[in-house]
Protein 1
Amino acid sequence: MSNQKEWENICETSDILPNIGVCALFKEQQVAIFKVIDQTGTEQLYAINNFCPFSKSNTISRGLVGSLDDKIVVASPLYKQHFDLATGICIEDSTVSVNIYSVRLNGNNIQLAA
Amino acid sequence: MSDRIKLVVIGNGPVGHNFLEYLVESGQSEQYQVTVFGEEPLPAYDRVHLTSWFKNQDVADINMVKGDFYPDNNFILHTGDKATKIDRAKHVVISESGLEVSYDKIILATGSFPFVPPVPGHERDNIFVYRTIDDLEKITAAAKTAKVGTVIGGGLLGLEAAKAVMDLDLETHVVEFAPRLMAVQIDDGGGAMLSKKIQDLGVSVHTQKNTQNIGDGDSAVHKMSFADGSELETDIIVFSAGIRPRDELARAAELQMGERGGVVINNNALTSDEDIYAIGEVALWDNKIFGLIAPGNAMAHAAVDHLTGTGDSEFAGADMSTKLKLMGVDVASIGDAHGNTPNSRSYTYVNDREEVYKKIVVSEDDKYLLGAVLIGDAAEYGSLLQFMLNKMELPAEPEGLILPSVDGSSSGIGVDALPDSAQLCSCLNVTKADIITAVQAGATDMAAIKDQTKAATGCGGCAALVTQVLNCELEKLGVEVNTDLCEHFAYTRQDLYNIIRVEEIKSFEELLEKHGSGLGCDICKPTAANILASCWNNHVFDSKLQGLQDTNDFYMGNMQKDGTYSVVPRIAGGEITPEKLIVLGEIAKDYGLYTKITGGQRIDLFGARAEQLPPIWRKLVDAGFETGHAYGKSLRTVKSCVGSTWCRYGVQDSMAMAIQLENRYKGLRSPHKIKLAVSGCTRECAEAQSKDFGIIATENGWNLYVCGNGGMKPRHGDLFASDLDDQQLIQYIDRICMFYVRTADRLQRTSVWMDNMEGGLEYLKSVIIDDKLGLAAELEQEMSHVVDTYQCEWKTAIDDPEKMKRFAHFVNSDKQDDNIIFTTEREQIRPVFTPEETLAVEVK
Ligand code: SRM
Ligand SMILES: Cc1cc2nc3c(=O)[nH]c(=O)nc-3n(C[C@H](O)[C@H](O)[C@H](O)COP(=O)(O)OP(=O)(O)OC[C@H]3O[C@@H](n4cnc5c(N)ncnc54)[C@H](O)[C@@H]3O)c2cc1C
Ligand code: SF4
Ligand code: FES
């Protein structure tokens, strides 16, 4: 297992509004990045594929985030399926999932790694 | 095929129709080759609700025939064709149009006709009866040139007719031979109270008047002369002096008849000919004719059971208790209302202030209820009826059943105590056991109960009781009807609205912290955003609100299936200048957008990428356009017709009113979208009756219809008020709109809101017109806040470059989404379908 990740700068943290996603172009792929404020008031970063497998459109970053039971999720904006932001697995149909990406805050920079 | 039993049903009234429904339910209908003759031009309609049909004059409201019931079951229905002869020797039925249909069995369901006493002058013009749609149409037509209308007969049907006459805006009189109204069903005290209440409504009641002659009037069409020498002038007369069975066919066929008419039947609804059944108001059982729907249905059941051998129900007489709302007055009569049972006792409660009269008649030993009369307040009808029907022992002091309880506790019957066999709905013969079965099979609300058991779908008198049984059974099953908005808030939308208003909550975080749990979700966040907007009307991009908006609100456009957006500028009332049309055309051309006229009389531009929205809107705003809120749960459009300015029939300026209304309510956030329409005359080209608020011009102002709907489940609006001036009209809409915003569920259109409102239209009127809850001023003030703080969301946002940044597809690149691909069709763009679909198209 390699822990040597190649981190790439995407944007500054101020470019992402709390609880509102953005879409990043990362290695020719579209990645939805979310900055979720959890119940303790702490910022948590999540990154998953922007492509919604249900509507087949690049729209996940425009979904609403929230929680279902103890999972942090995003609702796809077109047909409202929920994806677990931590695992990429669809709540309504666990056979469907989207890729997740490593994301971190480095100084002021939001960084992604594959 | 030909070995099927030939069944001829004569008469397609409610009972004849219900017979066929029961036949289908018995599962045996395929054994029969069924031919139905109906004299009226329309298939069976619900006569009981004739008076309410009057309001909309829409036959669909009272049509009893679901979908293609007749063709689906291979029943042949001849409407507008009367059976003229039953030839028992040849076993054929002959019709007026000349059809000869042979039969094995006949169901005679010819009902009854209104009796018109042979008073001299009764055959004059402008004299009517009240039984069919045709009768009502004639009365309506005659009313156009009339001022005064008089009903002869103060019984149940006479008072119904009086209601219709009153609704036609005529000065209304009721003339009754007996010393009181509804002499059959209620006692003197009740009759007096009923008269008083009805006179309060503006109807003149004349009792003990025996009409002796009808001749030419001096100031009106007719003059009625009474035995006591007095006279009454009137333009229209409606006879409602009792009914007589339509037994002419049976009489000619020499079936056994009653002395005063009616076809004699036994407990199986069989006449003296074992191949002929008679059911409904034509049938005479134990020397009695039953002029109500419930006994007719019971006969129909007995006939099906006997005919098919699938059941053993018999007709064994019927309870004639009734509960009605006559001109808005509750009237109920149970059992021995007059106290005719020897040695019976009675208890009476009279309240002159509230104009309520209640009486119960009990057995000598105070143990059993024998009868009751309730006027002005019939809340106890259901429980009293059950005490009587089930011979349940009364509480020690039976008078408590009708005395108002000072501490608010009810002394009525616990529904739990009712035996399973108790018949809750007499119209449709539904027992408590039927309700329990339906609940066990998963019914959890009244809609499901009505659907599955048909309870409460007749006169509606049993609805309260059925609801109580339903709730009690649900409770027993431990079903808690969960009305929580979502897992984060254990409240309904209405609760949250109140919390936000009262505690002046301005953000979702505050709401969640004080009253919720978790992080929220795509249900509660937009709901909260919507309520916050209804209350405080801040911009959707307000930093506290932006994270709550559904993508459509966030991008102020509607997301399409490929992730592009539509652009819908407001075109108030559908009126647009050529200059603006050209601007729209140019923008569509410049950005290559698909252009379509919407169903809401405006123009939708489709296919805009998120990053194109700001420049497109820059141009629109500069040209004077505003956002159309096509994305919001908010006012959509006010549809209009061209109105009196251009149209030869227009009686008011509907165009100006539509524009005024659209500009007033634009931007208002509401539980679901709201649509209005304004028509310039009764031809209704704007289809206003299918809108949440429909406004139709009259000679004197505007008629306001409320809670109409198109969409998935169409509903015609209810007439809320007539002949309003501009100011009243707006005042009422303001109030209703805000009351809806306050009290509706999430995503509940006004139509469903109305259907679920206890007390319905009358209740809404009392809140809005009579200000029963003392809310009117507050509602108006809340609306004026919304109107005063209106801003075009696009116009406000477009000058803020920081806010426009969010429209870029990528946070870190100027590239476009390469997944959005268009092709052309009919000279415009359209999204390319998914690869599979494209393939499918090619293969074809
Ligand atoms: C564009 C339009 C169809 C068209 O090409 O003409 C349209 C398009 C949509 N309608 Fe509609 N409706 C449009 C007129 C209507 C009408 C006709 C009317 O308003 O006179 C109706 C029936 C009348 C009514 O609402 O009572 C109508 C009944 C619905 C319904 C069913 C509502 C219901 O109560 O049953 C929905 C679904 C919903 O809202 O839950 C819906 C939902 C939608 C949505 C928002 C579906 C969606 O979520 O994507 C469509 C997106 C619009 C867009 O992307 O811009 N639309 N829709 C019409 C826009 C009118 C406008 O100018 O704003
Ligand atoms: C205004 C009004 C309000 C009422 N309110 C109530 C109420 O609240 N509760 C209640 O229980 N009852 C009420 N009733 C009574 C109820 O409507 C009747 O009990 C019911 O309609 C009886 O049904 P039926 O099918 O026996 O007869 P009908 O409804 O009279 O139907 C018989 C049908 O047969 C047709 N017909 C007759 N002869 C022939 C022939 N030879 N060939 C072909 N067709 C023929 C007739 O044209 C008619 O359409 C009300 C009645 C009216 C008029
Ligand atoms: S009818 Fe259905 S498909 Fe057509 S616009 Fe309305 S919502 Fe869309
Ligand atoms: S009793 Fe008339 S509908 Fe139930």
Protein 2
Amino acid sequence: MNILVVLKMVPDIVEELEIAPDGRSLDPLSLRMVINERDEHALEEALLLKERCGGTVTALALETPEIDDVLYTALAKGADRAVKVSGVETGLTGRAGAGLLASVLADVPHLLPADLILTGVEAIDDLDGQVAPFLAHRLGLPYIGIVTQVTADTPGAAMVIREYAGGLRGEFEVSLPAVVGIQAATKPPRYVPVAKVRAAMKSRTIESVQAGAEAGPGLIQVLQMAKPEAAGRAEMLEGSPEEIADGICVLLAGRGLL
Amino acid sequence: MAGNIWVLAAQWRGQLQEVTYEVLALGRRLAADAGVQLEAVLLGHNARDLAPALEPADVILWADHPELAEPTPETYALALAQLVKARQPRALLIPLTNVAMDVGPLLAAHLDVPFVNFCKTVRVADGALEARCGLYGNKVEVTVAASGAPAILGVLPGTHLAERGGGQAPSIEEVPVELPEAPRVRFVRYIEPQAGDVDITQHEVLVAVGRGIQRQDNVALAEVLAEALGGAVCASRPVIDQGWLPLSRQVGRSGMQVKPKLYLALGISGAPEHVEGMKDSGLIVAVNTDPAAPIFGVAHVGATADLLEVVPALIDRVKAAKGGKAA
Ligand SMILES: Cc1cc2nc3c(=O)[nH]c(=O)nc-3n(C[C@H](O)[C@H](O)[C@H](O)COP(=O)(O)OP(=O)(O)OC[C@H]3O[C@@H](n4cnc5c(N)ncnc54)[C@H](O)[C@@H]3O)c2cc1C
Ligand SMILES: Nc1ncnc2c1ncn2[C@@H]1O[C@H](COP(=O)(O)O)[C@@H](O)[C@H]1O
């Protein structure tokens, strides 16, 4: 089982996000980039699959600032290969069209033959998502997303579990090769100590390939970017934690909840 | 502006999901503004009986096929691609549920048009369609030109008021679709949720913890508070994904829909997938260190504070108040 995992850097939304003066994008200086959370789960599911069924895991990413750290971390966690694709202008926030990105990824020489291509089910930073269905279409492969478990015990097919609402899940059989969008891995993503990542930096290499990018359907045209207008904004309690706790208690008592 | 406005009915397991009526309400307005018809698309197998209930639409296009019995996104997208090519609508609105979420981008890939995701609202501006969409967990909004032919838009649940009824009986038209006999993604079975330790939908007080709880040990703090308040602990997705609480405690799109009298949101940012599951709670109180957290747009009362400082203070006071009452 050869598994390819596609990783993306996205702005950390726990930080303050500043709108750039053009009014249509985020101010790059305000951003701290982190790996898309779903992609971390995709990598974990790939590593779990490899542990069960054997094979290889390749981590693939576009060349963006700090991507080396992410790829070395993937190697330290157990990936066999790490590949970065250079020469794609995505802008810091990766706002290239899904179609374009899919063409680029579909073009990467190492991409096939892979039995399974795992991506995150979605990234928080773009609208014309989702790269994975577009990629599947380009490659002529099936796609299924919102997946929380992948097993591959029979040749030529994988069993995947897809999440619905209220804890209900659905099981699907997918012909391989396939592209699968991961929502959450079977187990929480593993932790890898910094020392192991440092060791990977010394002993392993990240392969680099040049993108043979050809234009896909264009970007969605962003007319304006803004902070959402709060329709009904919460009434804010001020003061020390104790004062806030008092305020909450008064509120609850008033509603007969205390 | 040529072409009608289409809405994909969220039909699942023989029922129409409520969000269908929210998106039909949006479709109704767009169709009126553009001077075209509103058409609902109903895909399924033996689902014809549901068609009349889509009456906010002028026309109901109904396709029946055994391969559409379960909503496998691949087959749904294939069926829709055929209908779109044959009838050329101006726009297709798809409710963003876990059932239909993949359908939009797969269809867009087939048709080589963009997919406009996370739409909160859509309007006709100078004859063109414009969408306002939430990004970055709803911390930012973008207004975009929905220029695809057709425009394919994913509409967030909970953004429009559901409207039923239409006045005139819609015409119901069966439309043929051809699907491959051996689909590459095959539905096998549903896996029912395991009976949870606690049924969070039955509690009047919920203490909800998000990633801001930071460590597994801290969940115990929330448990103490919930117990003092006579309620239960529930959580957002990251807490469940870490295995700190069982899946039965998850609130949101993939988890439970809850409507307690009190929802105390601790360290939860307020991503749309979470808000969907709790926005109708009686009283929502949010504690978050980030003054810009979207949860403050949903909560009735909020505080910009560290939950790890507020919760212990709250436990003391709640215990004192309850103790006082008992004495
Ligand atoms: C298809 C799909 C389905 C999904 N279904 C669900 C679902 O059912 N339920 C769900 O919850 N999510 C769901 N999600 C995930 C959702 O998009 C968000 O990622 C998730 O809700 C974020 O959880 P959070 O608010 O706990 O974490 P974050 O967004 O990381 O927010 C953490 C918050 O804690 C605050 N904080 C940090 N430290 C402290 C502190 N000491 N005191 C107070 N505040 C603090 C931060 O300021 C931040 O606002 C789904 C996603 C997808 C794609
Ligand atoms: N620019 C990118 N570089 C690498 N992977 C990407 C990129 N964009 C999307 N992906 C992959 O596709 C998934 C879905 O992203 P999106 O389609 O942007 O919502 C991500 O979780 C990644 O696995």
